[in-house]
Design goal:
Blueprint (H helix, E strand, L loop, with lengths): L3 H10 L9 H8 L13 H10 L1 H8 L16 H8 L9 E2 L26 E5 L11 E9 L5 E5 L4 E6 L2 E5 L9 E5 L4 E8 L6 H5 L13 E13 L4 E5 L4 E5 L1
Antiparallel strand pairs: 1-10, 2-3, 3-8, 4-7, 4-9, 5-6, 5-9, 9-10, 9-11
Length: 257
């Protein structure tokens, strides 16, 4: 199987016209891949957000006190959940403790199948508004909405942004990456209420090598015109800081001209 370096060389020097890629060939190869295990290093922002929202509760949940276990940088972070997501398994459901789940920002990886978080126990749902854009655009803005479709009031916190996934035929081509600010968003939604988040996406193609770096390369090859999907996920941390619910929703179809 070609390595990521070879795939990247094909994007740039293969038989396709300059600036274009054969996405069908890339996707066929990507389906044979399995998502690599995820390490704690990328989960720091989720833990930091929780620390802002509920420092007292987290001192019990994460500090190694009674009933708690300490997290050390470099420890594997929920490898079973991460592997399950790579197989297309649902990874959401009822709220899990911080130690049991894969953070939203690490759920979808380049060239892996798009993970399905499944329905939430609370009834929370996240949706992406359709967009119309040209394939040559960059930093295309989006509106992502978190809705309480359940029957009970929901309170807690989230990070400042959702994690957006740009995909084709169920394979991740790009996802939200890079550092985010540590400001938490307060969630207080009665049944039927919603709150919105500004977001954006890049219509480009990343590889597993890009996920290993702190930031994606500036020269990722364009995905080109065609039909794609956009979806989003976000972590909702309970008001007492002890559990976190991974919230997803249906993908929206878009066409880049």
């Amino acid at each position: 199987m070609p390595s990521d370096s070879e795939l990247r060389d094909r994007f740039r020097e293969g038989t396709q016209p300059r600036g274009e890629i054969d996405l069908d060939a890339v996707l066929r190869r990507a389906r044979a891949r399995r998502r690599p295990k995820v390490l704690l290093a990328g989960a720091g922002s989720v833990l930091a957000i929780a620390a802002i929202a509920v420092p007292a509760a987290l001192s019990t949940s994460f500090g190694g006190g009674a009933g708690g276990s300490a997290i050390v940088a470099g420890d594997a972070y929920a490898p079973e959940s991460a592997t399950g997501a790579a197989d297309g398994a649902a990874v959401g459901g009822a709220g899990q403790t911080m130690l049991e789940k894969t953070p939203a920002e690490l759920l979808n990886r380049c060239m892996a199948p798009v993970a399905d978080p499944g329905p939430t126990a609370s009834g929370l749902l996240i949706t992406v508004a359709p967009v119309s854009a040209a394939a040559s655009e960059r930093g295309i803005p989006l509106t992502v909405t978190l809705t309480n479709a359940g029957s009970e009031r929901i309170t807690g916190t989230t990070g400042s942004r959702p994690s957006v996934t740009f995909a084709r035929d169920g394979i991740v081509l790009w996802h939200t990456n890079g550092p985010q600010d540590m400001m938490a968003r307060i969630v207080d939604l009665a049944p039927g209420q919603s709150m919105s988040y500004p977001a954006e996406f890049e219509p480009v193609v990343c590889t597993t090598e890009d996920d290993a770096a702190e930031l994606f390369r500036d020269d990722l090859p364009p995905a080109g015109p065609g039909a794609y999907t956009l979806s989003a996920v976000i972590d909702v941390i309970s008001e007492d800081g002890t559990t976190v619910e991974l919230v997803g929703g249906p993908a929206v179809d878009i066409v880049l001209g």
